[in-house]
Amino acid sequence: MRRTRAHAWSRSLVRETVLLAEDLIWPVFIHQHASSSSIIAMDQVCRLGVDQLLKQAERLHRKGLQAIAVFPVIEPEHKDDMGSYALDDSNFLFSAISKIKQHLPTLGVIADVALDPYTTHGHDGVLAADGSVDNDRTCQILAKQAVKLLQAGADVVAPSDMQDGRVRVIREHLESLSMHYGLILSYSAKYASAFYGPFRQAVGSAGSLAGKSKDHYQMDFHNIKEAYIETQMDVSEGADWVMVKPAMAYMDIICRLSASINVPIMAYQVSGEYQMLMKLADGNEDQVRALFYETLVGIKRSGASAIFTYAAPVMVDFLSS
Questions:
Q1: CATH of the domain at 129
Q2: Average pLDDT value for residue range 120-134
Q3: Residue 103: exposed, middle, or buried by beta-carbon count in 10 A (0-12, 13-18, 19+)?
Q4: Domain residues for 311?
Q5: Would you call 300 a catalytic residue per the annotation?
Q6: Is 190 a residue of the active site?
Q7: Residue 189 belongs to a domain
């Protein structure tokens, strides 16, 4: 085997997995302000205004980036216990998506479908009397949210809430409005993970969720079989793509699903995984590129069709150079 490994050219010829800029999706935090604001919990990541986002996205799109995923940062005055601003026509996210698609029509826009950025309690849906998330009421609201996001210009709606049956309800709403080409990326295998902390700080839901848990609707990380059940259910309900989240600690899930599910599988290198690698690199840009390259190749090797990563700007530059 060392004869084959002896030269860079021979290693390249037999390489089984190749990571491309086109494999990466950039998750972006968008707010209604013109200037950017840094995120203390995430090195080199900022909340961006739409014009700043457009400038960066245009440059990365020229280098191979095919899609972004937009996550809104909602001001406290727009939050309530029902997440009403998610359906409000004045929601800045709708106009931001329209502007992005107007200026960059060939860049895919994936829009998150969930209520946690909009609720005062930080959960992904509306609450029942006992404090749990009301599954069926939430699904109806999410379907209306998905319709509004697609009408604004989003190419893909991505329910990340983990309510049972929400894909079916969303698909039925889309079909009833003849929105037949609306893509649904379902967060099918979204685990209740300790790696989400920096994201919640970025979108401003960490304080609302303090002392609470999403264990009663997100998946138990001890389990494998329910990932298959959830994914099969979502595909049967109309999901075009499915997601495994987080990615790095769940590559066994990605591998098993890719061998058994006949739809594209996306993986999300989440905020805690990102920050862990950034801290390990300790400001060394060569180490940043090396660590993310190795982990992203590993995620793709496990079977992911595309990967959400906050390192997309750095890695698109690296992979296209």
A1: 3.20.20.70
A2: 90
A3: middle
A4: 19-320
A5: no
A6: yes
A7: yes
